[in-house]
Write a structure and sequence with these properties.
Blueprint: H1 3-6, H2 17-22, H3 29-38, H4 45-53, H5 56-66, H6 80-87, H7 89-105, H8 115-135, H9 141-150, H10 153-161, H11 163-176, H12 180-187, H13 192-202, H14 207-214, H15 226-241, H16 257-263, H17 267-271, H18 274-284
Helix pairs in contact: 3-7, 4-6, 5-7, 6-7, 7-9, 8-9, 8-15, 8-18, 9-14, 9-15, 10-11, 10-13, 11-12, 13-14, 14-15, 15-16
Bound molecules: fe (ii) ion (2 copies).
Length: 292
């Protein structure tokens, strides 16, 4: 293991993060190839289908997911090409992204935080993002869902590679009534959002996803996708009022006022979307089956 991964997060300078992620194993090549190809607007369906078909387990999982209540399509979709044609590249890309990250981190144990609660929080934020994007006519529903799903993955990198620091955050946050982000800022020079950014950049994830993950606790700093970032920030805060907040720490104290303003939203109006969010959540929890 590398020198950086042997350190404590307390001793890691933000400049070292890039070097740190070099030592974190990458996603399997097939995912990287897939995400890269899917960013090309001229890519043809057979090419994507062929690539996915090379990996039996990925194909099976994608078909399982696209046939679940989550996508709400009544007829059975039997092939990847059909899935791409019916649901679109973006939906299949989202499914593949979700599957890849669940595969990668799905076997994490629950020391410190309950992992089922962690994934429920991720799915809740993803669902809230999607509903808000739809209700506010923001044309990035798939991206919004995926950013919501992945926003806190930096915490899993902390858990896997900096286990003692991770448990330290759990303890100090509980004692001091701090949110995870506040606690990390008090203890370290780096936090889960910057770690998430570094990992996703190294894995060639779409730049919009990388940017929104990086700034989800500091949404006004986002220059590339400010609306998407504001969306995931607000969704994260709202998840706590649905009792689906992130486990291990206290809820954030407030929602960024500029993020709400950018979305033309206030907490009262957001609360009005609760029924729609709950409906979306019911279907989205199907994704938890991917962890089996
Ligand atoms: Fe976060
Ligand atoms: Fe979160």
């Amino acid at each position: 293991m590398s020198a950086v991964l042997n350190k404590s997060l307390m001793d890691i300078h933000p400049r070292e993060i890039k070097g740190m992620v070099k030592d974190v194993p990458t996603l399997p090549v097939i995912y990287q190839e897939l995400f890269q190809k899917m960013q090309d607007p001229n890519i043809a369906v057979p090419e994507i289908a062929e690539l996915i078909a090379q990996d039996q387990s990925l194909s099976t999982k994608i078909l399982h997911l696209v046939n679940s209540a989550f996508y709400g399509y009544s007829k059975q979709i039997k092939t990847i090409s059909r899935a791409v044609v019916i649901l679109g590249f973006r939906a299949v890309r989202s499914a593949a992204l979700a599957i890849s990250v669940f595969d990668y981190f799905g076997d994490e144990d629950s020391e410190g935080v309950n992992m089922l609660d962690f994934w429920k929080h991720s799915i809740a934020v993803a669902s809230i993002c999607k509903v808000l994007a739809r209700e506010l006519n923001i044309n990035q529903q798939e991206e919004a869902f995926i950013v919501g799903l992945l926003h806190d993955v930096g915490k899993l990198v902390e858990k896997r590679y900096f286990a003692e620091d991770f448990l330290e955050v759990c303890t100090v946050a509980q004692e001091q009534h701090l949110s995870w982000y506040e606690c990390e800022k008090a203890l370290f020079q780096v936090h889960h959002a910057t770690i998430g950014k570094a990992i996703f950049r190294a894995w060639n994830f779409p730049p919009s996803v990388v940017d929104a993950v990086q700034f989800h606790h500091n949404p006004t700093a986002s220059t590339k996708v400010p609306q998407l970032t504001a969306l995931v920030h607000v969704a994260d805060v709202l998840s706590y009022s649905l009792d689906l907040g992130a486990p291990g720490a206290w809820p954030p104290k407030e929602c960024d006022a500029d993020a709400l303003k950018l979305l033309g939203l206030d907490m009262e109006r957001a609360a009005g979307f609760q029924e729609k969010i709950e409906e979306e959540l019911e279907h989205a929890m199907e994704i938890l089956k991917l962890l089996d």
